[in-house]
Amino acid sequence: MKLMDRYRRELQARHYSPRTESVYCRWVVRFIHFHQLTHPKDMSEPEINEFLTHLAVSERVSASTQNQALAALVFLYRNVLGIEIGELKGLIRAKKPIRLPVVLSQDEVKQIFSHFHGSTKLMIVLIYGCGLRLRECLRLRIKDIDFERNDILIRQGKGGKDRRVMLPRSLKSRLESHISEVKKIHLHDLSEGYGHVPLPDALDRKYPKASIDWKWQWVFPQQNRWEDRQNGKQGRHHVNASIVQRALKRAVDKSGLSKRVSCHTFRHSFATHLLETGYDIRTVQVLLGHKDLKTTMIYTHVLDRGPASVRSPLDDL
Hints:
By secondary structure, the protein is mainly alpha-helical. The protein folds into 2 domains: about 5-80, Tyrosine recombinase, N-terminal domain (DNA polymerase, domain 1); about 105-300, Intergrase catalytic core (hpI Integrase, Chain A). Helices cover about 50% and strands about 5% of the residues. The protein has 13 helices and 5 strands. The protein has helices at about 5-15, 20-35, 45-55, 65-80, 105-115, 120-130, 135-140, 170-190, 205, 240-255, 265-275, 280-290, 295, and strands spanning about 145, 150-155, 165, 225, 235. It is globular and about 60 Å long.
């Protein structure tokens, strides 16, 4: 079996996401090409060091990008080649700048929301109202929404962790109406012999009919059906992330805001607004799904009681 095929198989066996698999594979290919197609088993710490240093010095990548490349190579050597990487002496690390997240005021959030409509608005409001990552929102399934307990189960978040977040009461009726319309679409698909959705892991083999079960359907299905060329099955993927991202860009442009706003900005704003209203940082950490409290602590630096609340001595002259 070829090296990259073995690499992909090991990533899949450990349930790495398709996105991570794609990124890791690109790093391994770049590493091999950087060393003139030398096989990785014939290289070790010095070659890895040289490649990572090149990324930091010549390509000036960020610290997170360099760490990602290192993680991809460590996985290759440890899990595919069975070689432990020792200490990388003399490695020049990319500097990690300390940057505060962009945070919107609640008025700015409302202003942006006013330029959305339909299911796209429901998605962006849900991202802010629950502190979700964009892909966590897009990958919600019907069974993840609990209207009785007023909460949402986020499955396989970053790091493969599950967590629960609150279902905003102001969104409950809108979400119920939306799901009612989604069910009509699903029943129509079933009547035409379709209605399948992709299932995680090997559930489609274990439960052959689960892919058409209502509870496994996406909360935000795409408009058009997809077709599996191998078996002819048709169904729906969830909405593509680019649709929400483009809609957000248009909404921000119409709002006239000078801040650089992405879908993740609403997650930052969610955390900051909770701290501003008095919720403790441990609660915010759990809702965001952060493993380390230090990650959540950054939001304490952007609260309103920071520099903006300090009275300058110039104002007393």
